[in-house]
Amino acid sequence: MFSTGFGSFFWNFDSILWLVIGLVMLGFAVVAFLFAAMAREDAYRAADKQTKKFWLILLGINLLLNLVLPMLFLQIAGLIAAIVFMVDVRPAIRQVSGGGGRRGGSSSDGPYGPYNGGR
Q1: Per-residue model confidence (pLDDT) at position 60
Q2: Is position 17 within any domain?
Q3: Does residue 68 form part of some domain?
Q4: Which of 74-78, 95-99, 109-113 has the lowest mean pLDDT?
Q5: Which candidate among 1, 39, 46, 63 keeps its CA 20 to 30 Å from the CA of 92?
Q6: Which residues constitute the domain of residue 62?
Q7: Which is nearest to 93 in space by CA: 38, 44, 31?
Q8: Could you tell me if residue 48 is inside a domain?
Q9: Residues β-bridged to residue 110
Q10: Is 79 within a domain?
Q11: Residue 44: which of 4, 3, 91, 101 has the closest Cα?
Q12: Largest alpha-carbon pair distance within the chain?
């Protein structure tokens, strides 16, 4: 009698933990898909990455599988694809597109304006 109640507590905690992990994976898939959709097609070619269509299909399948068929193996494979996009493709696209992480300015700007090196 004691073990049934105690075991159900851990079952509930385990199911909540997997639900949270699944939601995090789903959220990451949504963000990666949105970033892939917002980038320009020519930026993919200029960054020498796969085409926009390729990444939208790959990340769209990942998103669909996370929603319809949440199997851990498929979620992990999709997570790897989304991670590759976010850490390799997206920074290359941003660099080519001119969105290097700063809002305006040049690479020689300091915190208080342009830095000329004492010239």
Answers
A1: 95
A2: no
A3: yes
A4: 109-113
A5: 63
A6: 25-99
A7: 44
A8: yes
A9: 113
A10: yes
A11: 91
A12: 82
Instruction: Indicate whether 61 pLDDT > 70.
Output: yes
Residues with Cβ < 8 Å from 115, sequence gap 6 or more?
108, 109
User: Where do we find the tokens 């304006």?
Assistant: 113
| Inter-residue contact 85 to 36 (CB < 8 Å) | yes
Find tokens 């992480």 and name the residue.
101
How far apart CA 86 and CA 100 sit, in angstroms, is: 14
Contact at 8 Å (CB) between 41 and 52? Answer: yes
Residue whose C-alpha is closest to residue 4's, from 94, 12, 50: 12
- Using the 8-state DSSP alphabet, how is residue 113 labeled? E
Number of separate domains in the chain: 1
pTM, two decimals, is 0.71
Confidence of residue 57 (pLDDT cuts 50, 70, 90): very high
Rg (CA), the chain: 21
Return the residue matching tokens 């939601």.
23
- The predicted model gives 45-54 an average pLDDT of 92
The terminus-to-terminus CA distance of the chain in angstroms comes to 82
